[in-house]
Design brief:
The protein is mostly beta strands and about 170 residues long. It is about 10% helix and about 35% strand. The chain has a five-stranded antiparallel beta sheet. It has a three-stranded antiparallel beta sheet with strand order 4-3-5. The chain binds zinc ion (ZN). The site of zinc ion (ZN) has 8 residues, from loops.
Length: about 170
């Protein structure tokens, strides 16, 4: 069954043929983060796909994965393309290296999960929070409920983690 919802004025949909994403988001709707574990080479993968990017085999099982990591890269959006996002600028789009499987199968690899910076309640973060986050910030996963059956995995500052001084673009 497909998923259709509206998120801040944007239509979101997952087609019924996209079985991997339907399963992924079914777990997200329950605020559980699961990824596919290859039954051949035993590596996790992201985003959800039909075959393993490492060994090309299809057999995989869904396993729970801890949603913790550090910011690998970020974009700070100042000019919203979607009008509904205007009220939330500046907001952050984060690419986060999960702690799980970091450095495998090669030293430069990580499971890199995209999400916005949000409050612990899953609302897009206010400016004072945005300005504290940069490359290296420790974050934990939270979920933004969009509609029945759909929640988006997002990131918030991990207040219990020891925080490095994050790298940020020079501020003007
Ligand atoms: Zn594999």
């Amino acid at each position: 069954m497909s998923i259709k919802a509206d998120y801040l004025g944007m239509p979101l949909s997952i087609d019924e043929l996209d079985g991997e994403n339907l399963t992924y988001f079914k777990f997200c709707a329950e605020h559980n983060f699961h990824l596919q574990l290859c039954e051949s080479c035993n590596l996790l993968r992201y985003p959800p796909t039909t075959a393993c990017p490492w060994c090309m085999r299809a057999a995989a099982k869904w396993v729970p994965v801890e949603g913790r990591g550090a910011v690998h890269a970020y974009t700070e959006v100042q000019h919203a393309i979607q009008p509904a996002f205007k009220a939330f600028t500046p907001y952050l789009v984060l690419l986060v290296d999960l702690d799980t499987q970091k450095g495998r199968p090669s030293a430069q690899e990580a499971l890199r999960i995209v999400g916005n910076l949000t409050t612990a309640a899953g609302k897009l973060a206010p400016r004072d929070m945005v300005e504290r986050v940069g490359i290296g910030t420790r974050v934990r996963m939270v979920f933004s409920d969009v509609a029945p059956g759909l929640a988006l995995p997002q990131w918030t500052i991990d207040e219990n983690a020891e925080q490095p001084k994050p790298w940020r673009y020079a501020q003007t």
